[in-house]
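Sequence of DUF192 domain-containing protein (Naumannella halotolerans).
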Amino acid sequence: MTKERWFGPGDRRLICDGRVVAPVVLADSYRLRRKGLLGTAGVTGAIWLTPCASVHMVGMRYPIDVAVVDADGMVLKRATLRPWTGLTWPARGARATVEAAAGSMSEWGIEVGSRLSVG
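Predicted 3D structure, token representation.
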């Protein structure tokens, strides 16, 4: 039996409104953005995909929380997406998308209007 692969944690930190909330992996290359969380059984922390204005859940096996942010890191949209059926439509001004385990964004206090950054 093969061990299921979990994504993360990253060596950087996700910061929400000035406070560190989780470890984060910065996916800023085409290869890393294309792979994302596909093929994983779960995620520890978060993944920051940039540039990335929208995401889909085709091929995913578990639900995730998604925050779409603008160039200043302000959260434009936040949603929980289900495997195979969820997606985000591009938002005006969207520059990046942050993905985490379902329920994480509420736990971390991330809402529309929050400011996110990577430190």
